[in-house]
Queue: 2 jobs
Job 1
Amino acid sequence: MNTRWPLKSEEFIKLLGVEIPVIKAPMAGGPSSPELVAAVSNAGGLGSIGGGYLTPDILEKQIREVKSQTNNPFGVNLFITDPDKEITAPGTNISEKLSSYATELGVELTGQVAPFPDFEKQFEVVLDNKVRVFSFTFGIPEKKYTEELKRNNIFVIGTATSVGEAIALQNAGCDAVVAQGYEAGGHRGSFDVENGLPLVGTIALVPQIADRLNIPVIASGGIMDGRGIYASLSLGASAVQMGTAFLACEEANVNQSWVELLLSSEDVSTVLTNAYTGKFARGIKTRFTSEMQQFEKEIPEYPSQHQHTRELRVKAKELNNSEFMSFWAGQGSAMSRKTSAKGLIEELVKEYIEVSNNMGP
Ligand SMILES: Cc1cc2nc3c(=O)[nH]c(=O)nc-3n(C[C@H](O)[C@H](O)[C@H](O)COP(=O)(O)O)c2cc1C
């Protein structure tokens, strides 16, 4: 592909060893199948494994699967959370509501806590496998981890939802920062929430972060086509990270209901909700998100709510009941296209070139 990208993007893609400044977002919980990751990397972008919920064994297996399908660089993403955070019981309103849903779905809520994978061991897998890129969300890893990554020549990308978070990530030694706007699908990566959850839109966030950092900025949130890529690079980003756009790709591990909802969605189909996990995330509106909204302020923080709703979500999936499953998606979901990852990347580049030509002198 002989596309001319802005100088900043050219430098960024050279650094990573990829051809185009498009990162397929890491999407934990299934969508980022090894096939999707490899297909994106083979098409010249950077595929990323969403390793947050994966046990070290499965993470290692997925890395091997990706490596067997591509020789190109790819990334692994993990969650930076507090492993000692206590699970708090839901209040009466939440508890009664979840119980009524459990009765409706015919599942018993045992209150059993499913442990999260051990970060240390996940991290070891990342190091042992010498992946090209390590990205993370929900916080800042301790210095010992970033130092170890540097020693292993692994490119480090953090996630910010505000200028303050971006500066903190740069100071912590990140090589680049994802600027995640309000439009973004999935969980907010916010970690500095003392003054409330940052909800800045991508078009306002990217230039403000780009103005303050001296490392590359990766725009993320609501970018679905070549126009979005062009706009992001114009705002000062070196690259984009796109999640929702890849969900309807053939290689994504996404159930049929999810794909149908994406393809039939509209601009107003998504909502920012804490109902499923206790951490705000954007997804397609369901009966569960609508009815739980009244309890927004009472919902226990992540990972407590994640644990309290787990058995409901598992049962809903088993029953293929869309009203209780989470379908993470960004505000651009209506622009989703059902194609292959390679096909999507080719279209994105073509669209980018068209816009560039139209915007030319
Ligand atoms: C289904 C889904 C899962 C996601 N999981 C992760 C994740 O595990 N780690 C992460 O850093 N970001 C995750 N994100 C957020 C993306 O990195 C990115 O910020 C977002 O997809 C950008 O918005 P867009 O979906 O409008 O492209 C996820 C997004 C989606 C849609």
Job 2
Amino acid sequence: MSAGLSAGRLAGSVVYLTGGGSGLGRSIVKRFVAEGAHVGVLEISAAKNRGLRDEFAHGVTTFTGDVRDISAHREALHALGRQFGKVDVYIANAAIWDGNTALLDLPEAQLDAAFEEIFAINVRGYLLGAKAAAPALLESGGNMIFTLSTAAVRAGGGGPLYTASKHAGVGLVRQLAFELAPRVRVNAVAPAGMATDLRGPHALELGGRALMADADPERMRAAYPLDFFATPDDYVGPYVLLASRTEGRSLTGIILESDLGLSARGIRAVSGEAQRTLASQRAAVGQRL
Ligand SMILES: NC(=O)c1ccc[n+]([C@@H]2O[C@H](COP(=O)([O-])OP(=O)(O)OC[C@H]3O[C@@H](n4cnc5c(N)ncnc54)[C@H](O)[C@@H]3O)[C@@H](O)[C@H]2O)c1
């Protein structure tokens, strides 16, 4: 066992996470292991799983499989149950994007297949994991956390396929929070953009490359009131809060918008005087960094 298991905000917790092989999921693994948790990861890429075992050794158990297959969830959860006697947290995180493909650009011939592919991973995959994890979480009094997106609550974080799939995630969170209370808390984190290995549907020929890897950091930064382009590590704090039995105790059914201030962005620009003050503060902060 890793040294971290004896201490930390999640000491002794057993966590089941999908899509932990790169990006946000990998950052969650890193932080949760450091906080004393053991993380079981269901990940479609065997190579990424090897990388996790190399880096986190006894802090992780990896399972290579597809979130669209309920037996993959069940096998992983049973193995964790056998190894640790319980599961405390289910984090549904594996998803794909649509590369911002707008309605008018969606090829009609591929529309059905692209819809099926995105919804099968982003919605059905989350639901199948919840179905498989619910008995263990009811027993442990644990919780679920769904990775959604700013696209779960607003337009423009993707095209209609991704945006609708992430909005569907809000419905899952609210319904499951209602159904499983008081024993199991169910919440979501809705992050803004980050450069990861995020792929798109093969049906749109977007499965072969990392779509967010080319994101222009300057353009991304300028979109957010907090004035920085976040890394996956920057989004992990809310997961620790929600996963923790003590810190997250009062929270269920919430969509925690970890969005660098996007939801506080106004219609008008701030007044000239205020803008000058803010610009000089930004410059001063920039000099200190
Ligand atoms: N990157 C962004 O800008 C951004 C913004 C908001 C929300 N998100 C969300 O963050 C989450 C993580 O995405 P990321 O950006 O870290 O991308 P990522 O591709 O780096 O991580 C997703 C992981 O899921 C795995 N995966 C994909 N399909 C799978 C399947 N069918 N079965 C099992 N594993 C599968 C991938 O191999 C990958 O390791 C997703 O829910 C995504 O929608 C990402």
